[in-house]
Amino acid sequence: MLSNFTKIEGRSFSYWRIIILLGVLILMGAGAFIAVEVQGHGITGMNNKIAWGVPHVFAISLLVMASGALNLGSMSTVFAVKQFKQFGRFSAFLAIALLVGGLAVLMLDLGRPDRLLLTVMHMNFRSMFTLNVFLYSGFIVLCVLYLWSMFEYQQYTKVVGSAAFMWRVILTTGTGSIFGVLHAREVFHSALTAPTFVALSLSSGTAISIILLVTTFKHTKRELEDKVVFGLRNALIFFTLLVAYLLVVEKFTKMYSPAFYDVQSWILTGPYSWLYIFGVWGATILVPLGILFHPAKGNSIKGVYWAAFSAVIGTFAMVAHILLAGQAYPLNMFPGYEVSSVFLDGVSATYTPALVEFILGFGGIAITGIIYMLGIKFFRMLPDKAVAPEGYELPWNP
Amino acid sequence: MRSLQSHPVKFTVLLALVWAFVLVLPTMVVASGHGAAAQQSKVAYSGGPPQLEKAKGDACIRESGWMRRNHMDFLKHRRAETVREGLRIRSESLVRCAECHQSHEKFCDQCHNYVGVAPDCFECHSYPK
Amino acid sequence: MTMDRRTVLGLGGVATAGVVLAPGMTLIASPQPDKTEASGDQRWAMLIDVNKCDSDCTACTKACRQENNVPLFGDPNRDIHWIRKLEIRDKEHKRPSVSLPVLCNHCEHPPCAHVCPTQATFKRKDGIVLVDKHRCIGCRYCMLACPYKARSLVYHKTTIPEDGNPKVPIRAKGVVEKCNFCVHLVDEGEKPACVQACSKEGKNAMIFGDLNDPDSEISVKVRTVKTQTIRADLGLKPHVFYEGL
Lengths: 398, 129, 245
Fold this sequence. Notes:
The complex is a heterotrimer. By secondary structure, chain A is mostly helical. Chain A contains 13 helices and 5 strands. Chain A has a two-stranded antiparallel ribbon. Chain A starts with a strand and ends in a 12-residue tail after the last strand. In chain C, strands 9-2-11-10 form a 4-stranded mixed β-sheet. A two-stranded antiparallel ribbon of chain C has the order 3-4. A two-stranded antiparallel sheet of chain C has the order 5-6. In chain C, helix 2 crosses helix 6. The longest helix of chain C has 24 residues.
């Protein structure tokens, strides 16, 4: 099965409408960035307890999805799942686009972005951030090589694709470890935080791929065989179950120990419980699984699409929960004691995100979007028609 | 069908553009002088060579020509050593500059405006106006 | 050679004056040599006697604000606190509440310095953990890593106050800052402003000194009195000790 890759035409009114919309979002994002830099972080909703706000939620979610976007490529290159080979280019390219969008938000939210170069001049190799600088840039290099090999030198695809696969696992471990290694933060300090991020990247990457493939093929009037999407659906089910499994193990371990009773009951009943229940469990796990296991909806493209949509929203919610609830939970400086002070010790932090933070975050998404839109117009990223190989049968369906 | 060869090139160009965008934004902010607190008193320069106020003391800690060329390196390297190594040379501390050069508007800013540089030292460090 | 009576008396007088003056002179800080540098021979630390600390006394926090030009923005979520007073009480309310100041603990293994991507936060040779504000990029990772909430981001532009202390620089917005043990005073042989204020206006609950000097007051106290550090379980080896906690 050899797919014929072509560019999309990209001359229609709706194509340009999307490009202009994304362009406006990017300009607004740039405006938000300049506003924050000139006025200071005072115009955001962040404070000394919630020091990482909405921009970090956007950035880290995009970074998690970036490594996940490589799923389709890895599945075909590393695990020889033939029907995904035709999406290899799409997958590696989307990974780059998402990573660039995420990194842009991360860097533009710095207090002093003008000093960014200091991170490479005075490296501190004990910092997860410094390690991530290498992981992110290495990932982009590997993805470019992977993409290049798929375009030109197919004989290297296997080597580069395998390297990229290993790299993305380490990459997401690095992203998760930004949080996992912080001992003082009881909500997310856990060895399971990094693996949970890896699992989340698998599910969210598959979900974002489903959304983009279904939408792109529909609007460019290309054929996308249902069986291919259902193959992705099965992957999404498995990955979502993996996320659920890790969440349950982490909760079980912590709830077993009386030392964690306080923080666990705070997560379930505190000010961020809605995010945990509806975001982490609802949007990430229960809604997608409910739709995908439904005999009728799980076997319709529309159902799979909405399940994937919910999984992507859930990814943002999960990162938001780890970040915001993780910071809002009061630091336990004196275990067994009640604490109070003028600096709001011992109470949950409050945080009302400002509009400017969302504009910055959507600017990052728009950067990703515009890279993707231009990429499929100028490069032969997508196959003419995506069909399953001869005699391919889905292993199972709901 | 077009040659496959052209793709990697185009692709690299696109990537370069994206990264240029990401890197240029912060640079723009610096250039615009808004980089957090980089706004010094930007008095528009009005003709003629800079007129420096006469220093009060007898002699500077180094010869004047040397100071003119190197004071910035001196301050910057000393700065890192002072902050990070705790190096304190009391006879050569920044605070003592003000004993002789008693106004940064009449001394420091004269040259800085003339050559168009805006160091942000005195956004945080106090120095007599 | 013989000495006449007057000479002998005179010498004795000088010697006596020396003995009397010497302790006094250490209080005023002996004149510093022109050039000094932080060295590993010292390890600065603080000891706070919680029993002496009054809940309505804020001498230390006030002195800190005055000495280091630490601003208040009027927003409790964003105000910068280098040192703050805490009230703690056991959850069963069986014992009276305890008041104590909390500041940067100047850990032996500072998590803030571990996570800093530019080494802007670092531990000086004499153990003081500092933020190099010229190098901080404002990523705020250290604020997540610190277990003591000792760090604040500067959210708003600040100006040099009229009655401020010209010896201490203020801050640019967008960088993170925290208590620095009044490093500019320590380098001149003086004690941090909070410790000075506590002995003058407060109840003399704070001791500051060099742990590497076995004869210093703090070394003797740490050896002989039962002290605790906050969150010793994290293994950071904080260097702010509490007595009677």
